Amino acid sequence: MKKYFLACTFLLLAGFGFCQNKLDGFSREESEKQEALEELFLETVDFSSFKKHLQTITKHPHIAGSPENNAVGDYLLTVMQEAGWDSRKYPYDVYMPKDPGISLVEIITPKRQPLNQMEDIQEADAFSEHSGLKKGWNAFSGSGDVSGEVVYANYGTKADFEELETLGVDLSGKIVIARYGGNFRGFKAKFAAAHGAAGLLIYTDPKDNGFTKGLVFPEGPYYNESAIQRGSLLTESFTGDPLTPFEPALPLDGKKRIARLDPEETQLHSIPVTPIPYASAEKILSQMQGTPVPAAWQGGLPFTYRVEGGPKLTVRVKVEQPIDFVRINNVVGTLKGSTYPDEWVILGCHYDAWAFGATDPNSGTSMLLTLSQALGKLAEQGKKPKRSILIAHWDGEEHGVIGSTEWVEELKDELGAKAVAYLNFDGGVSGKNIGGAAAPSLKKTMTEAAKKVDYPYSDETVFEFWAKDNPTPSIGNLGGGSDHIAFYMHVGIPSLSGGAGGPTLYHTNYDDFYFYEKFADPGFQMGGTVAQWAGIMALRLANAPIIPYQVPRYAEDLSQHLATVTTEIQKYDEDFLGFTASLKMLEELKAAAEEMDSLVNQALEKDALSSKEISSVNKALISLEKSFILEEGMPFGSWYKSLYASNDPFSGYASWILPAIQFEISNQSTANLEQWDQKYEAALQQLTKVIQGISKGLKKG
Hints:
With about 700 residues, the protein is of the alpha/beta class. It has helices at about 1-15, 30-45, 45-55, 65-80, 160-165, 185-195, 280-285, 360-380, 400-410, 410-420, 445-450, 460-465, 485-490, 515-520, 525-545, 555-570, 580-605, 610-625, 660-665, 675-700; strands spanning about 85-95, 100-110, 115, 140, 145-150, 175-180, 200-205, 230, 275, 315-320, 325-335, 340-350, 385-395, 420-425, 435-440, 455, 460, 495-500, 645, 655. It contains 20 helices and 20 strands. The strands form 5 sheets. A 7-stranded mixed beta sheet has the order 1-11-13-12-14-18-15, with helices on both faces. The longest helix has 28 residues, at about 675-700. Mean pLDDT is about 95; it is low at about 5-20.
């Protein structure tokens, strides 16, 4: 913004007149009003409130289902209501563990040695002494008490276990030890069990996060030898509560009864799994006597890693983890729109944490509270958003993205008709580096809003800091691992995820307020900055008469994605000619989107649209992303319905763009490619038809 205003001042002095560009979705006159509102909003954001909220929320560890987490939920509800939002709780009874139960890890032979499973107390960090802290655990572990020889499986990916097969390693009855990274931890457990392992230990290797990266906590922001990454192992073929796929896990004592699966019908893990720190892993790995690992498998501990431990080294893993119904509560506030109340812009972040959760997730929670107060003040002054803005604080995310999924399943039809966008800010203020990922239609909204906000630690805007020396910032594609999943991949609501990040003590007991104040953002400037950025995005989406989707971006991105998957297929099938039907349809989509964009701008410039016409256009725009929804779902899981995007079902976190095709690639198959070309062509045809319908209506007007 600083450089922008300098440029404008120069042009004004030179006699070139007003240099304000029209905002997407607004007429020029409306753009000026919106710009004035945004200036007022930026001034209204109270940067100091972020710190107060973060301190309050992170006083105690607050795992989903605990009294402490319920108290956090009550605080969120109170703050939102006091800020003028119509707020309520959405309760669900979910089948999940809320406590690690009993666990132990010990070396049995050659010399019995119990291994540490909890972070050390740090004199500098008073939070590390908290009596409510739990030892390291993986939610949804199987229960059991097993002993056996040891096999090292690198990251425990599908490819790593296939490599062990190639090496002739028999995992039957063995204890697998794998490092975090490469895939979702639940798949490490799934693959280990499928190959006959009796148990699994997971640790963070210092090569990935530890002393090889820099100073470790409490001197620096990296994992020390006792730090442990906690996390869920849930790996069903759908997201959410394991007993209620496709249906909300409504309260057991509620009026509406929901049919639930028997736990025996689920894919919950059977083998005991627990995380350990790298100091404990070192005690096992340093005694292994087998063949040296492939070069890429070598970690950061000071010895040669081995594939097998040999018969003299045996390890015991015991986990007794109770799983039962647990009440979780989403807290959702609504600021009702003045003009289009039945069109919703939704922002969210979860609030449950593995311990204190200062960076993950509660930096995002605190930012949204700060934002809710600023928007509430504007509403008090009579400056309500035109569309309704909803701010949601999700519960049960850490156990498997559960709270948001149940809410989406409960309100699926209403969301499909009303939701303009979902903006996710999980751990959204975890450092000072700006980043984001988005659906094609929201990428421009993200970057343009960033031009409006000053970056606090340099003479740049957020956009300029984010872009560095590039013309525009790099924006990623949404994968798995957070609360956008059900919105984007199940219902077809354009979504984005953004914020500020940096090195964190992810899912450890050390992710506390001391760490945040010492390492994440000592100046406490990023919370207000991200609130400003998120608020500008929300206000533009809420106030633009025509929803400001970047519709031509669909054709641009899809062209790149189709080229990418074609190249991947040709690596194993040189004769593959590409997705000819989809590519042909893509040309028509491109032309239709560009024409519609031009017609929308002309209509806005002439101020020629009636309220009925605006409503008709926006209804069609809201339906655009649904063109990619395939009712029968993806071949790897019918719950995932978007042909455009999914999380990788073999890693959990990675983004799969064109997931049906990616599934064929993962199996090195060409058998169904023609069929998928036809289905993608049909989706693009539907998308084009909607766009052409908008243009037809505008021409009549």
